[in-house]
Fold:
Amino acid sequence: IAAAESGATITLFAGEYELPAFSNKELTFKGANRDGVIINDAPSGTAQNWLGSSFHFENLTAKGATAIYHGLANGVKTVTYKDCNVNNLRFLYAETVSFENCAFNSGAQEHSFWTYGASNVTVTDCTFNYTDRAVNCFSENGADHELDIAFTGCTFTYAGTSDAPEGAVEINSGSVKSIDLTMNNCTAPAKGAMWFNSQWDGKKGQNTVVE
Structure:
């Protein structure tokens, strides 16, 4: 992988893999079996050296993190997931991130993903199975940060034990300059709202547009 030229597609066979450090490359990682190929896309926190790189994951299981502040950080441009199982926690640092036909399972973790530094996030034809909240639209030190995030054809399933959970997509507009949230043809959970303003949102959704 370290020797691969930018633009290459790397096919992974059954097993578990961890991404090595590299920079200024665009690589596609394609699994031979969605359930049998596991790739750890949050191997060592935010100290990674992937400056200027883009990642594309297809037909595999993305393992994700089990602790906060882990993910594809340090100047990553674009990250895409297609036909993947997306497990554990994920912190979106890349400018553009997309998920297509993915199954999210955060287990007992708090969220499937936090938007963090991402500016453009699209989630299409995905399923979320979660026990707390599925997504947190939130950024640290994001006073000038503008977030566009769109869910299309997604299904949210609450699998927790609370009789009155808050909901699936949490909005903390107090952490950013603005949030533009689109929910198109999505299925809400049986318990809790499809989206809601976080109790920690000091702006109470004033700079949020929901379509």
Summary: The chain has a mean pLDDT of 89. The first strand starts at residue 9 and ends at 12.
